[in-house]
Amino acid sequence: MQLENMLIPARVATGSWSIREVFDESARHCLPGLAFQDESGKVIGKVSLRDVLKSTCLPDYIVANVHLVGDHLANISIPEIKALHILELPARDFVLNDFARIDSAAPVIKAVATMEHYQTAYIFVIDDGLYRGVVTLVSIVKRMLELHP
Description:
By secondary structure, this protein is of the alpha+beta class. The chain has six helices and six strands. The strands form two sheets. Strands 1-2-3 form a three-stranded antiparallel sheet. A hairpin with a 2-residue loop joins strand 5 (about 120-125) and strand 6 (about 130-135). The model has no long low-confidence stretch (mean pLDDT about 90).
């Protein structure tokens, strides 16, 4: 199995993107985040859906006390007006510089090990500075199933 056969061709977010565009592209490809490139075209980080939602919607006290939080909290939600505000925020404000990346020639087991090291389910494939796409644990499993139906 080769990583290039598992690539998801998601676009790379840029400084001009809003969170709406990140969410749209991520949802289109069922990805938990996107690569982010600077003005020169170099991938310098990622925008993680988890991080965006955590930093804009999730107070620390709820995380710390999740075991006390019930399933029916009508007064704790993401109001429509806040959701609209979040979608309009610039993606560049949410770039994380610590991200998993790998060369397309690397073995699949290294991709899995790297994802485990970064505690993530996706990795960006970058060859000599050129972004090729994303490989996820799901895309690896799908390829295994394709090869052995």
